[in-house]
Amino acid sequence: MNFFVILFCGLFLLSGLDAAAVEELLSSHKSLTIGIISAVPGESGRLLELMEETVSTERGRRLYHRGKLKGIDTVLVSSRIGKVASSATATNLIVEYKVDLIIFTGVAGAIDPTLNIGDIVVATALIQHDLNCNPFCPTYEIPLLKLSALKPDPTLELFAFQASQKCAQTDLQKTVPAAILSEYHIAVPKVVKGIVLTGDQVISKESQKQDLKEKLPDALCVEMEGASVGQVCYEYNIPFAVIRTISDYANHQELPIDIKKFVTEVSGYYAESIIKNIYELIVVSGRERGNNGKSHS
User: Fold this and answer.
1) Which tens digits make up the pLDDT trace of 166-202?
2) For residue 221, how far is the Cα from the chain centroid?
């Protein structure tokens, strides 16, 4: 990556959201509605089964499941794969369902060599690695917005990190069958924060992976939805978080890994644990801010 691109990435690692957006929501007496997105149903695990008073509605060829999870109004949906699919889903959650914040959970391919299968990445910023509108604006910059990266809400990011740590250190050993943990060599996964890349292509070759790492050396993993959801949330001023479980090394054409099997057998355990833990943190935080649990009971 040349100096000009690095400079722009540094200058525009911004968010239009109020830094205290989630804190303000929790401090108000407004009942929260949370949108939860995964690309495919397996990535959300048993969350739908855990929801109560659920009503399912088809909109835009997607099923939106509205109900309560841990007493909080929740809309759960699988967006399908890719930037257009995920941005359309996020927009509908905001416009039709009036969600107050959005959490995206799913799998990703590691491009940082220190990451292993089963590790968790909590996004601190998201970049569309396939966005290039030169010569009208610098590589990775979103036209007209003058942003090259989008940052999640800091409070929600903190909750996601703490929830992921509890998942990794405690929950997985209790909930995931030992044979599955052994098969994927998962013991106590790492939980890290950093840059997540999004693009409308499957990164499956070592050459593609190394190209991304050369251009964006601080990036940790690559997926296909996070930054597009982040852009929609930025434009609507909605707090968001993106949490990714490492399912492969972004080179599975050369190092074969059955990603579909990982999604089906493993990733759902992560999503269920992390989301439940985030909700517990939201409930506790709301009560500590003087809500006395009224918004979440």
Assistant:
1) 999 999 999 999 999 999 999 999 999 999 999 999 9
2) 12
Rounded average pLDDT over 57-86: 97
Q: How confident is the model at residue 20 (pLDDT cuts 50, 70, 90)?
A: low
Q: Assess if residue 10 is contained within a domain.
A: no
Pair of tokens at residue 133: 């509108």
Q: What is the pLDDT of residues 146-164, one digit of tens each?
A: 999 999 999 999 999 999 9
What is the spatial distance between Cα 83 and Cα 146, in angstroms, rounded to a whole number?
19
Q: Tell me which amino acid residue 68 is.
A: K
**DSSP character string of 28-77:** SSPPPEEEEEESSGGGGTTHHHH-EEEEEEEETTEEEEEEEETTEEEEEE
CATH number at residue 142: 3.40.50.1580
Q: CA-CA distance, 14 to 194, in Å (whole number)?
A: 14
Domains contained in the chain, number: 1
Q: What's the rounded Cα separation, in Å, for the pair 31 and 120? A: 29
Q: Give the three-class secondary structure for 122.
A: strand
Token pair recorded at residue 14: 């911004």
Give the whole-angstrom CA distance, residue 138 versus residue 201: 21
| Whole-number Å distance between alpha carbons of 56 and 183 | 35
> Strands 149-150 and 72-78, how do they pair?
unpaired
The encoded tokens of residue 26 equal 């929790």
What the block records as the tokens of 261 is: 């099997």
